[in-house]
Amino acid sequence: MNIYDIFVIAILAHFVGDYLLQPKWMATSKGLPSILGLIVCALHALLYSWTLGLLLFFAEEWYSSQLLIWVAITHFIVDRYSLGQLWLDAIKGRHMHRDWHEGVDYIADAAAKSDDDGMDLRRLAVPILSTNFAVVVYVIVDNTIHMVLTFIWLVFARRFGLL
């Protein structure tokens, strides 16, 4: 199995681990600034690594314990410390929470300025779309960071004979 086959399986495992197997309580708790957040994030990283190991095993009865350890550690770090949002902050990109609060403020201002007939709901489309777009951008950036880190390990492993 070459690194590109493994990379495709890693992408699939990431989607399965992050979207099919991660319940809402795990997604919302893994970033909590508490021991619970730490434990939940570690559990999530292990779940994703387990998924990757299982898919690699079924694909060709092959797996690399070093790859699974790398993926678990990097997945934990990326999710625990929200590296996707830190990256977006560094490049002055979208921000889920900031865009959300700006949208809420915009809606409140629009409601205060509305006439007696109520608000024009078309005016709400901009903040709602902006917030939704910020979420999509965050998810893409987060997934990209995970995939870049996995690809870096695969290239490193191939160059140094670990695969």
Order of helices and strands: HHHHHHH
State the share of residues found in helices, binned by percent. Answer: over 70%
Give the C-alpha Rg. 20 Å
User: Helix count, per DSSP?
Assistant: 7
Main sheet makeup: none
Strand content: under 5%
Number of domains: 1
Question: Care to count the β-strands?
Answer: 0
State the shape: globular
The low-confidence parts are: none
In round numbers, the mean pLDDT is: 80
Please report the distance between the alpha carbons of the first and last residues: 9 Å
Class inferred from helices and paired strands = mainly alpha
What's the layout of helices and strands?
Elements: H1 3-20, H2 24-29, H3 35-60, H4 65-80, H5 83-90, H6 96-113, H7 125-159
Describe the structure.
The structure is a single chain. The protein has 163 residues and is mostly helical. The protein has one domain. The chain is built from seven helices and no strands. It has helices spanning 3-20, 24-29, 35-60, 65-80, 83-90, 96-113, 125-159. α1 packs across α3. The longest helix is centred in the C-terminal third of the chain and has 35 residues, at 125-159. The radius of gyration is 20 Å and the shape is globular. It starts with a helix and ends with a helix. 23% of the residues are buried. The mean pLDDT is 80.
